[in-house]
């Protein structure tokens, strides 16, 4: 608490009553009866410079909310594609201090910037310090795959002070009790995992995400987005019929990897593929209810 | 005129004009008609939580306007619903925009103690508080001289109320105590920058009489400050802005109450019976939500099993008839001789022989316990990680015995240096998956196991092998391992007629064998406890797995728990190195982190070289080949002996936990000591069975 950000007169910041950026976006999209497209890429992949272009490419090609991943040495919720991309980013000198540039890039391009991070990275950086730097860069909120609301005291306090969204996850086997805890503590939206498991593409989606979205809404969540395993425009269209937003990760990351899981030799080619994939997904998702 | 003087003058002026309307005698008559005050002291200290005094606060001189509060009664009810133990009502009208009307409305709305917070310097104001139903009044030491403080405190007590006596300095605290204050508010705001300083609080609150209730009064905003103050010894907290300006007042108070309860539970004693999820500030469940259902189920089933005599009977039967427990406690006189030669200490040394268990290590104690739980949960598939291979072998063994499907994840580096154990697991019917991600050691095997578990949690149990990971693993694995220390204590008494050991030595990777032998002695201060981490090439080399030495581990969350962690400046997990695969882990069990912080266990390390020396010494003197992991405890015994000598022990009784046998390590040892011909060494090299190198 000695690091708490202060007002110019030296007083600790109070609760920010700044409206939730995600909530505002969903309100607009709901008015148009349209789901939002949330796209994920790790920051620093394949290297810091190209990744900034990649984030802008996402926004320019129909991504509404960008989930900026912070590469981590031990990503237990990620499958092989995102693991490989994160490792490439780390090998190419990714530094957490640089991620705020990505946040600014997304915000300047007109997207809503979120960061997805395993908790130790934020904790090590300093929760309050991270929240302050992130908010200054124009950040909207954090997705925390290994931080449940029960352990999130410090983050809840920092996000309250800085008006940042808190996106917690739920999964198909979450009890109603757990859904309530998540819904009560979330800000912005709740991230519903389409299936049990780690991130990664899959050929077919089960019917469980629809039930999970309905249960999460019943537990009090205002906005529920579905991710993990959504990879094609058709899947995006299906999920977009009932979810407030559709989250795509591995399928986007994949465009910038070769068949051996290495970064494409020509990043320009990767960015072209990324733009095409994003456009196709946006088309499927945004027209889901038409 | 100081800010305080100004506030007092204003409050007195307002009081005088009220006195024009209602005389002191009228007030006294009205006070007599009020229901008796609540004994606030009963509400402000409790064993299982940190009482929260929630404040109705519209504004303050330092922060200006804070919140519109049209209905203070409704707000007070929300605070009460959130679990507040008392409500503070500011009645100062000029700067805080409060009133006695607020106090009346709050008093009528809640059944918990109500504090009148104002600048109280005369009798009239105290009587006024009572006449409006207050149970507590605020007295600010800085605004009163000794006589006046004494007088108002006495009057408050006479009226059956409690005074919260606010202090800012040690000198004011002394004055408050002298006047007989038993509820002292401590304002630890640093007056230079107005920041709240918990260390300043600790300094101020130090050495207060036991009967005094300490209320942390400044800068409490959210659960972070409640935790900090609670760990610094505060009994209660007063919070204003953090709850008054929250969007959801009930939830805001609830969070504070939970944070306080968490700290209290995390420090519960006796140490030997301490339960998770928190060990001091360590532990918890830093895992994906997708695992919470499984962890909740495991906790529930384990709690039922723990008190089920049938479960305990079956566990005991298997321990005796299958594992071969109790494992002996062997006297080691020739090793004691060598210890004396090297350290000059004439110790009586015993070895706890977990190496004689079926499968050759302590790991089976936990594997059997958890496998019984798997049966109880009705799951059919077991996954596990392994470093040295001992836990993998133990898991594969019990799965074979109980007919469970089994998959073991092992880092490729470990799999190569423990090729024989890989073969053993496969013989036992387990599928062994070599993990080629990350550093290809224990932590990477755990990552892969966690991913498997997240995906297959419905029918799969993750049989974690050490006292790390998310709750309930640290406490549960400890419970299955604590038989080591319980037996040792009994054997020492029954076989050797010795009441208690003076020292215990154990190696610490994740920490299960160490916690297993230490648990029975945690609350016995006569027993010195020593834990030894893997020193690799030494702490300065950067090639080690020492988490506790200065400049090594930092606080962090890793694989489900908060503990000490080896990480780089970016928070990325560092590569670790040790000659022993079983100690080669970047973090350490949360209970050990706590025992380190409270100073109960003395943690140090043994380097590769020291451990191999210990390995050789035990082979030569006692005819016992210890695992290289356990050799760190043997080598550590020399360090412990030097420490004991320094403490003045002359003939101490020492127990070294031999957590496993070293047959699996003969390749590494043979090479280390040059007992292999060049050809043999080369053959092993080709096989990859050498240190941290893979072929």
UniProtKB/TrEMBL annotation, chain A:
Pfam families in the record: Trp_syntA
Enzyme Commission number(s): 4.2.1.20
Gene3D superfamilies membership: Aldolase class I
CDD domains given in the database record: Tryptophan_synthase_alpha
GO MF annotation terms: tryptophan synthase activity
A single GO cellular-component term on record: cytosol
InterPro entries noted in UniProt: Aldolase_TIM, RibuloseP-bd_barrel, Trp_synthase_alpha_AS, Trp_synthase_suA
Family to which the UniProt record says this protein belongs: Belongs to the TrpA family.
PANTHER family noted in UniProt: TRYPTOPHAN SYNTHASE ALPHA CHAIN, CHLOROPLASTIC, TRYPTOPHAN SYNTHASE, ALPHA CHAIN
Function: The alpha subunit is responsible for the aldol cleavage of indoleglycerol phosphate to indole and glyceraldehyde 3-phosphate.
Protein name in UniProt: Tryptophan synthase alpha chain
Organism lineage string: Bacteria, Bacillati, Actinomycetota, Actinomycetes, Bifidobacteriales
Automatic annotation (TrEMBL), chain B:
Key words, A-Z: Amino-acid biosynthesis, Aromatic amino acid biosynthesis, Decarboxylase, Lyase, Pyridoxal phosphate, Tryptophan biosynthesis
Sites of N6-(pyridoxal phosphate)lysine modification: 363
Superkingdom, natural source: Bacteria
Gene Ontology terms for molecular function: indole-3-glycerol-phosphate synthase activity; tryptophan synthase activity
Pfam families per record: IGPS, PALP
Gene Ontology CC entries for this record: cytoplasm
Cofactor: pyridoxal 5'-phosphate
Keyword set includes Amino-acid biosynthesis: yes
All copies of domain Tryptophan synthase beta chain-like PALP, residue ranges: 324-647
Domain Indole-3-glycerol phosphate synthase, chain residue ranges per copy: 5-256
InterPro entries given in the database record: Aldolase_TIM, Indole-3-glycerol_P_synth_dom, Indole-3-GlycerolPSynthase_CS, RibuloseP-bd_barrel, Trp_synth_b_CS, Trp_synth_beta, Trp_synth_beta/beta-like, TrpB-like_PALP
Assembly and binders: Tetramer of two alpha and two beta chains.
PANTHER family, sorted: TRYPTOPHAN SYNTHASE, TRYPTOPHAN SYNTHASE-RELATED
NCBIfam families with a match to the protein in the record: PRK00278.1-1 (NF001369), PRK00278.2-4 (NF001377), PRK13802.1 (NF010375), trpB (TIGR00263)
Sequence similarity: Belongs to the TrpB family. Belongs to the TrpC family.
Protein name: Multifunctional fusion protein
Gene name, Swiss-Prot/TrEMBL: trpC
